[in-house]
Amino acid sequence: MAEPVSAGARQGSNLPELSVSELSSAIKKTLEGAYGYVRLRGEISGFRGAHSSGHCYFALKDERAKIEAVIWRSAVPSLRIKPAEGLEVVATGRVTTYPNSSKYQIVIESLEPAGVGALMALLEERKRKLAAEGLFDEARKKALPFLPRVIGIVTSPTGAVIRDMLAGFTERFPARVLLWPVRVQGETCAAEVSAAIRGFNALRPDGPIPRPDILIVARGGGALEDLWGFNEEIVARAVSASAIPLISAVGHETDWTLIDLVADARAPTPTKAAEWAVPKHSELTERMSDCGARLIGSTRRVLDGMRRHLLAAARGLPRRQDIVALPRQRFDSIERRLARGLLENARAHGLRLARAGSRLTPQLIASRVERARSQLDRVARRKSASLSRTTAPHRSRFERVGGRLRPDIIAQRVTRCAEQAGNLAGRVRSGMQAAIGLRRRQLEASGKLLTSLSYQGVLQRGYALVRDEQGRSVRSATAIGAGQRLDVELSDGHVRVHSETAGLGKQPASKDAGQQATTPPKAKAGSGGGNQGSLF
Prior knowledge:
It is built from 14 helices and 14 strands. By secondary structure, the protein is an alpha/beta fold. The protein has four domains: about 20-115, CATH 2.40.50.140; about 140-280, Succinyl-CoA synthetase domains (Rossmann fold); about 365-455; about 460-505 and about 520-525, no CATH class. Helix 4 (about 160-170) packs parallel to helix 8, helix 5 packs parallel to helix 6 and helix 11 (about 365-405) runs antiparallel to helix 12 (about 405-455).
């Protein structure tokens, strides 16, 4: 142990100078060498969950002191219990220092609950957590199969539990049993039981080892510490994720664990779990006989009732003639109306066709036919000129090449080409004539349609078309004002006239109607209009 330094020595120059890092390192070595591994009992304080790095930081305290604690991420999975705020634990680890903040701490490597009270507090905390996640809900629990063919058991292979269960199966209903041996207490109990449950679920129904129809997790009675492996969170989650219905038979009737709350059914004893898994053979046979007799009797009663009902319904049905009488009469009425409707429909379409035909005149498309004919002639001339321009370069090139070639070598080829060219020319002429004939027929048809639709045919029958100064058609006498200049189009030309009075609409005819009519002033006849107008 270092002796205190006197005041004179402190003022001298014989003391070595240390840096802060050197002093911190020396203190760290002294502390770790003096204590090393320790077992420390205390209450967890300041724990807010694992850090983002995975490490856990908190403090252990009692009535008079507190020490900082840390659990590295690599040690967290191997802990027997997980740290929780306010939990009294026994921690095993190394005492060390943290130079950056000049404080000492314990690096925990294992964590155990301190006493039964701590275990019960931890158990209640896990129970609340799993209940909040819905693992205890009755809605998610599966129904047990009525007659399982294969039963999977997770228990110790050397205890009395498996012998009692096998004897129960033999007495009630023999079934195929698959045993997954596990340790039912100790540190590895939870990992082995959860692995067994997942292993049974991973089996395929058609594999060499069949998948069980029901699982039983069994163990005899014991203290809370002995049953603690079935209170681990990993076991509860494995039971919740199991797709196979599972019966929990852990401990005696007064014992309970977390697996009892998550399982689909809880048996008070392992023997009772075997009785729940399979029915009794004699009871099943007696029940089958009773159900068969009841089925035969009920079938007879149902058939008799149906027979009576059929006979009563047959007597209440109407005759076939009465059923079809009304539809037959309705059909005859519709047939007579249909004949009259067809005649009226044909007559209406005939009137519409007659009215449409009276408005069609061939003069309407005469000019269009002429234009189409002239366009067709221009196209024919352009095709001939284009053919000449296309063949001229080839002919000149052939002549240049022919001048360099010996005529006796290509005489036959030239002859063949000349024949092909003659054939092509004949085909071109035939095609041109056919195309011109087709266009000429189309043009003539368009001319006839134009003539039938032109308003000039109406003018040739004695009618006239009146327009105002802006060239708009005048359709009513009330639209004409006094002194207004009008243009009257006849079949052979235009006449410019002036209106002496405003239009008054229709008036009663009088005797002097012919005497009151006035002769219009001199009208200047215009030249015949070539443009097509509208009667409306």
